[in-house]
Amino acid sequence: MDSADDVSLILRQVKGIVKHWGEAGFVPPVLRKDIAALMKEASAGKSPSMQEVELKTARSSCNPVRYAEARAADLTSTDLTSLRRSVEGCVKCRLSEGRKHIVFGEGNPSARLVFVGEGPGRKEDETGRPFVGEAGSLLTKIIENGMRIRREDVYICNVVKCRPPDNRIPERDEMDACLPYLLAQLRAVRPEVICVLGQTAGRGLFGDSFRIGRVRGKWISYEGIPVMATYHPAYLLRNPKDKGIVWEDIKLVMAKLGLGGGDHDRS
Ligand code: SF4
Known about the structure:
Order of helices and strands: HHHHHEEHHEHEHHEEHH
Number of domains: 2
Strand order of the largest sheet: 1-3-2-4-6-5
Structural class: alpha/beta
CATH topology of the largest domain: Uracil-DNA Glycosylase, subunit E
Strand content: 5-15%
Oligomer: single chain
Number of strands: 6
Number of helices: 12
Mean pLDDT: 82
Radius of gyration: 19 Å
Bound molecules: iron/sulfur cluster
């Protein structure tokens, strides 16, 4: 395959992603402009290099997935232990400055279900484990009392692996810097379903136009893996009236995994 074929293949793949995102309700218009520019260059006989295509199509802040993938070439391991080692000592973003522990993720390396949250809080930073604070207890209840599976049977991780100061929302460049680790984790576990917890985690994985209110309760996909987005447990602690909405989303996840439904104790 020559360079023009490579370019054409990449453009087709990117257009497919844009189409899919459009169907999910969040098309990034900037990305469309990038593709149009690349098409123009290609048809004018100027063959941009593979690297140029990767960077041009990925650089948009609306498209962090491809941006991160373009930078994740060295994270090809499908072994979570090796991946964990590759994160050790990471100083790729300013979140490294205040952390006590990197919170890589934990759970079954062959889990059928992966939960993706936003980032570690105080307790997670202290322990190096994801979702162990108050919001984590609620997530554990959702998994164990609601879904009736053990927490250790799923895999739980976050978009950023270090705690943002004062629990602020991770910034775009911090999420982009950390995203290769998450993408590598998802490639390693290759779950049947991903459950995205909250607006920030959704933005981290799908881009800034992600809106939890529009997307939750609907199946979207990441690399062919069905994705259900729902509200973050921390949001539920502040808005307990919305627990029923999350339970409806979780029931869709259970049905997709063939776990059956049920309205047993999920409090
Ligand atoms: S948040 Fe991620 S990218 Fe930033 S220092 Fe921590 S591990 Fe590295």
